[in-house]
Write a sequence for this structure.
């Protein structure tokens, strides 16, 4: 059975943002917990593109060296670190949201470039 993009996104949001368990969400929506795990993995690896087409095996992106090196002084390391499961879950949620935001911004940039290209082609035809 094929599930819509919106449905997959809703399932991922329940797990990442609302602290539902994977099995709990699967049971609630009457789907396999393995399917939920698969969608989450696709989301974590490829962001929103992974949610759109989780069954596509994309090549791993090339590692690009950062243009600017960070100095040790720039990195702030807190004195005490909270290793509790609640803090870990919060960090996972923040990471998932950051990845989703990055994917959204990339998609927005691509759409803007496409719109500018179409505008340029239209002006060349006239």
């Amino acid at each position: 059975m094929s599930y819509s993009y919106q449905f997959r996104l809703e399932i991922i949001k329940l797990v990442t943002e609302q602290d539902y368990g994977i099995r709990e969400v699967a049971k609630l929506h009457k789907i396999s917990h393995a399917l939920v795990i698969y969608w989450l993995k696709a989301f974590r690896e490829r962001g929103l593109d992974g949610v759109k087409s989780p069954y596509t095996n994309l090549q791993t992106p090339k590692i690009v060296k950062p243009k600017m090196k960070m100095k040790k002084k720039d990195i702030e390391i807190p004195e005490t670190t909270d290793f509790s499961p609640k803090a870990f879950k919060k960090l996972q949620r923040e990471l998932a949201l950051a990845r989703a935001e990055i994917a959204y911004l990339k998609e927005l940039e691509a759409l803007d470039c496409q719109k500018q290209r179409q505008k340029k082609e239209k002006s060349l035809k006239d």
Summary: The chain is about 65% helix and 0% strand. The mean pLDDT is 80. The radius of gyration is 19 Å. The helical segments are 5-16, 22-29, 33-46, 48-52, 85-125.
